Amino acid sequence: MCAKLLKSHRERSYSIRCARLGANILNFGMEMAMSNNHLNYLRREHARLDAEIQREERQVRPDEVLIARLKKLKLAVKDQMVAECVDLPDSRFG
After folding, report:
1. Which domain holds residue 78?
2. Tally of domains in the chain
3. Which of 20, 30, 43, 79 is most deeply packed, by most CB within 10 A?
């Protein structure tokens, strides 16, 4: 009787550990997807800021203050991209 209860307890413990591991893997996968989505957003924002900087620089009288602000924003986005890539195990930053 005790052996049967012990076996049942071990099986339940194993099942619980497997369920927790599965949940952790699922959460990790969701975090990776969210991180990849965020990284893609940051890349698009970086490209958008770059295009806006180039557009302003082509003006006859470019707004130097605006250009400086855009460059600061672009650098901040790049810093976020680098930080995001450090957090990702399979980072493909480039």
Report:
1. 37-87
2. 1
3. 43
